[in-house]
Write the structure tokens for this entry.
Amino acid sequence: MSQRSDTDEIQLLNELREGKHTAFALIYERHWKSMLSIAWNHTKNEALAEDIVHEVFLKLWDNRENYQITNLEGFLATAIKYIIFNNYREEKNRLNFVESQYDDKQIQDDEKELDRLFLQQYIRDVVEEMPEKCKIVFKFSREDGLKNSEIAVLLNISQKGVEANLTRAIKILKKQMEKDGLYIFISVSLIDSII
């Protein structure tokens, strides 16, 4: 995201917190299609996906003063996913259909896979907002699987510098996850295995 659009988003979020309908309308206009796509990809049901997106945006408006959002798209995607999971749990007919198609282990495996995929995307989004050196060190370490000594050579910094940047990146990531409430919804063991 460019510095200009970062500024625009911060301004929009500030105006949203102040209760400005024009800011909410612009946020909705910018994000509803991508959120609908996320909801549809998980539900494969157009009407349900639309309902979920509308519910997320209504909650955004209703609770606008309570949210401290730093990554709007990530926040909305998180909200979409958890409404979907709640709908799966609440709708007995849908659950009965799923159970008739799969055994319990398959359902649990599917949910774990959805959690894993969502968490990976969430982490990518948070990492993109980190200071440059933290971002690069984290990507080399976690995405490319490089050792600290290899990263140090690549970036021409000490191994202690690599460790410091990696520690900082993980702290930023965990703080953002706590802020977004991810520890409530996703198991800590899954988070730890991906981080």
